[in-house]
Design a protein that fits this description.
The complex is a heterodimer of chains A (166) and B (840). By secondary structure, chain A is α+β, with helices and mostly antiparallel strands. Chain A has a 6-stranded mixed β-sheet with strand order 1-2-5-6-3-4. In chain A, strand 5 and strand 6 form a beta hairpin. The radius of gyration of chain A is 29 Å and the shape is elongated. Chain A starts with 13 loop residues before the first helix and ends with a strand. Chain B folds into 5 domains: 127 residues, no CATH class; 99 residues, Immunoglobulin-like (Sandwich); 97 residues, Sandwich (Immunoglobulin-like), CATH 2.60.40; 250 residues, no CATH class; 200 residues, no CATH class. Chain B is built from 9 helices and 42 strands. In chain B, the strands form 9 sheets. Chain B has a 7-stranded mixed β-sheet, with helices on one face. In chain B, strands 15, 17, 18, 33, 41 and 42 form a 6-stranded antiparallel β-sheet that branches. The N terminus of chain B is likely disordered. The chains are: A alpha+beta (166), B mainly beta (840).
């Protein structure tokens, strides 16, 4: 004769549930704390990049650079404007003689990549790398400018600067 | 016996689980905490980097932007609770904090001043980079005052706010007030203590008299940096805002009505603008186009421009050549013969002697024509009443002349001719009185300068027996030794009786019955063109008859023409404007109290003006002068002609409607009496018109036009001078209708001012007259702004007389509506304030 005896489940006891709840709570708190730290870091990165592109494009579009009359070997501050928001096209061409690394150094963006494009009705010029749309952080900025070609022709155009970090 | 056999499995398992979780939590907590610390460090480093890059950016922008660059920017006070330092080395800016440092590149560290935690200013002044120059560290101050438009009875409060938050962020140390920038008064902070970068202070200046005030305030912070501000405000009785900043000056004008309600009431101000500009220190001439009248509505706090107009002050010089009036009669400028005719001889004509009044005492001298079959006539002075006969010297045979009551005049009476009824005679004769006189150099200079010489006299024409069928004239001449010029107009061409000369009056048709009553009139003509130099001249006037005998009735000795003359005057009048925009810009400025002004109400106006330093166009809102006047007019005609005239006046600015309640017959009996305040016109009829109370009406209205064919206007018109059953008497005004130039009558009778009885002087007659024949054409305009009054005497009589001499009278009497313009003297109380200058 087989005798079936009832045995209480050892797992689903009240103790188990209490401990499970505590465990899940601790797990969630840890997860949130970790994630928050990660988000804050990401926010700072984005914020930093936005400030950088603003500073860089502000200097490009509103100042003539430093020293005044700079060339590819003497430039310390990159500025392409002889009057506010008017790009001197010859300076832009001169800037192309500066190496990529030189430009990232001057702009203080050695940990990043950039693309600078000036486009108008009759021109389209770009400096830097091709934009990596898969980058982890990417910050573009576009400004309306006038392009002075120096021969009496002035074009309405756009200055677009894109900064990214993989 | 109790048996405890099994051990608690949950207790062991729970403990195991708890230990496991504790270990797990402890280890994960470390990791998490480390991560959090790393993140915090990252934040601090990031912020430090941001600060260094911010400083570098602002510095580099200031350098590369060039001179004139000024910008305010903010850098944090700490790095998440940690203090930090800013240092410069090797063309880099370093932000150092707790052993960490972040750097950014700058192109120069050569600048004056220091970076501050908080708000900073960076400036590029001719290549010199300055940080937080002193002037940027002073607190900003704003002064204000309340109320917005203060009046003397208001408490004026000045408020000051000081803000140093963006200017160094130091606490405000104190604020001070001064009205002269010399003596400063400490002001208490509103919150009691100056202990914050933002503070406010105020002070109650109390009541202030009408004037313009400027106050200065200064506040300083605990670093000692100080700023100043000032505020200017105007205290005026009306508490008004300035109407237009393009107008630099204004004069406050308050008008108070304290006696009776006024409606659209005209106001006149006389202002010497030259003196006003001198007082203001403005060295330019007055710009009369700049005059504007603006009313300040204190309830709505708005300025409302009012219609305005102005007139120059005209100086009138008058000269009266000696016409040999009696010495005792020289109280007037007219020769009125009250005490006789002055003559020392009788040498008629300009070639005669200067011997006083002359008369044509023989047929040879008949000035206007005669033939052999002349009538007996005489020229007489004095009172022929009682003389019924024609005689060579004193007349006889004629009926008693129908003469006006004032019987001291010159007379020329022609008649007393009996002829055969069948054969008849063509009788032509004339006679005249005249006098020689002298135009001196001063008088002639006045004419040369644009003055006018007006010759005028009263005349009367009497049909002595009421049966004069033929032609009769009254003639006049003016001239010198070269030529005597006939005066008047051509009244007889095309009529049965006519001649080749002008006349004053004529009866030249063939009515068979003559004219029944005395015809009276006033003649006046500008004779300036006949005065060509200083020297001797002559004037004469008289009568003429021409009885061409186609009349089967013949002539009797009782028939004749009686021509009478009185009040003879020759006046030379020169009008000179006293206005000079550089030296004497004195003008009468007119405007209206628009709408209704209640008793006790004060209305606040400003007269804005300027000099020609900045010229202005004339106002496009002008005031109609006529509106300001109280019109009284008289129109003499028959009923049908009056209706025609009224129809023509329907669009006239003085009449917009009328009602005719009765039609007249030959003797018109127009019973039209309309009092309509909306149109400001009253049209009155004859004595049986409804009762009309003028005194209250004229307080509100401006125009009164009186139409009456009545002979006896002194009994029928409300301004006649005495009471009647239907009308009131006002002042000393009598009534007159003029046959022609009304201004003569005004000037000759204008020595007394007529006031309408309102208890106080109400209407001041200004002797300004216009005559309108009903088509808006002003025929005569005469204004004497130096005064003179209207005393109206004599007028034609009934309408039947108009038919007796239609050719002449239709041109004179029946087409004209006479309007007498009175300037109101019962002005409301007007007070002027001190002239104010716009200073912002």
């Amino acid at each position: 004769m087989i005798r079936w005896t009832k045995r209480k489940g050892q797992t689903f006891t009240p103790d188990f549930f209490v401990s499970a709840i505590i465990f899940i709570f601790i797990l969630n708190v840890s997860y949130l704390a970790w994630n928050s730290a990660q988000d804050i870091g990401s926010d700072f990165e984005t914020d930093y990049m936005q400030k950088k592109v603003f500073y860089i494009t502000d200097m490009i579009a509103r100042t003539p650079g430093y020293p005044y009359g700079w060339n590819s070997t003497t430039v310390e501050l990159i500025g392409l404007s002889d009057s506010s928001n008017m790009i001197n096209y010859s300076k832009f061409l001169e800037l192309q003689n500066v190496s990529y690394g030189g430009m990232t150094f001057l702009w203080g963006i050695s940990d990043y990549d950039f693309n600078l494009t000036i486009s108008g009705e009759t021109t389209y010029e770009t400096i830097g790398k091709s934009i990596d749309n898969n980058a982890r952080y990417i910050t573009p900025i576009e400004r309306v400018v006038l392009i002075d070609y120096g021969n009496g022709t002035i074009d309405k155009g756009y200055l677009k600067y894109t900064l990214w970090k993989i | 016996m109790v048996y405890f056999g099994k051990k608690g499995q949950s207790g062991l398992e729970f403990m195991m689980l708890s230990i496991f979780l504790l270990v797990l939590f402890t280890s994960s907590y470390s990791i998490i905490n480390k991560n959090g610390v790393d993140v915090l460090d990252y934040k601090r480093n990031y912020l430090a980097t941001s600060i260094s890059e911010k400083i570098a950016y602002e510095t580099n922008m200031a350098v590369t932007s060039g001179s004139g660059y000024l910008k305010m920017f903010f850098i944090p006070y700490d790095i998440y609770g940690y203090d930090y330092n800013i240092t410069f080395s090797r063309r880099s800016v370093f932000v150092d904090w707790v052993g960490n440092s972040q750097a950014s590149h700058i192109v120069t560290s050569n600048f004056s001043g220091m970076f501050l935690k908080g708000y900073n200013y960076i400036e590029n002044d001719d290549g010199v980079i300055s940080l937080n120059p002193a002037y940027t560290q002073s607190p900003s101050i704003i002064m204000s005052y309340i109320p917005k438009y203060p009046r003397p009875e208001d408490d004026v409060i000045i408020q000051i706010s000081a803000d140093d938050v963006y200017n160094g962020n130091k606490n405000i140390y104190g604020c001070y007030l001064s009205d002269d920038e010399v003596i400063w008064t400490d002001l208490a902070a509103i919150d009691g203590t100056y202990n914050a970068p933002i503070e406010s202070a105020s002070i109650n200046l109390g009541n202030m008299s009408s004037s313009t005030y400027t106050y200065y305030a200064r506040c300083n912070d605990t670093d000692g940096f100080m700023s100043m501000d000032e505020v200017t405000f105007r205290v005026s009785a009306s508490g008004s805002g300035w109407w237009n900043s393009d107008w630099k000056y204004r004069i406050p004008i308050n008008i108070t009505v304290d006696d009776y309600q006024r409606y659209n009431y005209p106001v006149r101000l006389r202002i010497n603008f030259t003196q006003q500009l001198i007082n203001l220190g403005d060295g330019f001439s007055f710009d009369n186009n700049s005059i504007r009248i603006v009313e300040w509505d204190s309830g709505l706090e708005v300025n409302i421009e009012s219609p305005v107009n102005y007139k120059e002050i005209i100086k009138i010089d008058k000269y009266y050549p000696d016409l040999w009036d009696m010495t005792i009669d020289t109280g007037t400028t007219r020769v009125d013969f009250t005490n006789g005719v002055n003559q020392t001889g009788n040498t008629f004509g300009v070639t005669g002697d200067d011997d006083g009044w002359d008369w044509t005492d023989s047929a040879i001298l008949a000035p206007y024509g005669h033939n052999d079959a002349q009538a007996d006539y005489f020229a007489y002075f004095g009172d022929p009443d009682g003389y019924s006969d024609f005689d060579t010297d004193d007349g006889s045979g004629a009926l008693k002349p129908d003469l006006p009551s004032d019987s001291k005049y010159l007379a020329v009476i022609i008649g007393n001719r009996l002829d055969d009824v069948n054969t008849g005679d063509d009788i032509l004769d004339s006679g005249a009185w005249g006098t020689k006189f002298y135009i001196d150099a001063e008088m002639y200079s006045a004419i040369e300068a644009g003055g006018k010489a007006y010759f005028s006299f009263d005349y009367y024409a009497d049909d002595l027996d009421d049966d004069l069928e033929e032609g009769a004239w009254i003639k006049a001449r003016f001239g010198d030794s070269t030529v005597m010029n006939y005066l008047g107009s051509d009244l007889d061409t095309g009529h049965p009786y006519s001649d080749n000369t002008l006349e004053i009056w004529a009866s030249v048709d063939n009515p068979n019955n003559g004219w029944d009553d005395l015809v009276a009139g006033v003649f006046k003509e500008d004779v300036s063109r006949y005065i060509t130099s200083a020297g001797w001249y002559y004037l004469d006037f008289g009568g003429k008859v021409d009885w061409m005998d186609s009349d089967s009735n013949g002539h009797s000795t009782s028939e004749g023409l009686g021509a009478y003359f009185d009040n003879v005057e020759l006046m030379i009048k020169k009008e000179t404007s006293t206005y000079n925009n550089a030296q004497n810009a004195t003008l009468d400025v007119y405007f209206k109290l628009e709408g209704t002004t209640e008793v006790g109400e004060i209305r606040n106006y400003y007269l804005y003006f300027g000099s020609d330093n900045v010229s202005k166009p004339a106002s496009i809102i002008t005031m109609d002068y006529d509106v300001e006047y109280f019109h009284i007019g008289y129109y003499y005609t028959n009923a049908s002609k009056m209706e025609t005239a009224l129809d023509a006046l329907m669009t006239d600015r003085w009449i917009t409607s009328w009602i005719r309640t009765n039609t007249g017959t030959v003797s018109p009996n127009i019973k039209v009496s309309t009092i309509d305040p909306d149109v400001n016109v009253v049209i009155l009829g004859q004595s049986d018109s409804p009762t009309f109370t003028l005194s209250s009406w004229i307080q509100k209205n401006n125009t009164l036009i009186i139409f009456s064919p009545s002979k006896d206007l002194t009994t029928d018109l409300p301004i006649s001078g005495y009471s009647s059953s239907n009308h009131e008497k006002y002042g000393e005004l009598a009534t007159t209708a003029y046959t022609e130039h009304i201004e003569t009558e005004l000037s000759r009778n204008s020595m007394n001012y007529g006031y309408l009885n309102l208890g106080s002087p109400g209407i001041h007659t200004q002797s300004c007259v216009e005559a309108d024949e009903g088509d808006n054409q002003v025929m005569i305009s005469y204004c004497d702004y130096y005064g003179g009054a209207i005393s109206l005497n004599n007028y034609p009589s009934t309408s039947s007389e108009t038919s007796a001499y239609p050719s002449a009278s239709s041109d004179i009497l029946e087409r004209y509506i006479w309007k007498l313009l009175f300037e109101r003297t019962n002005q409301p109380a007007i007070s002027f304030g001190m002239v104010e200058e716009y200073i912002g």
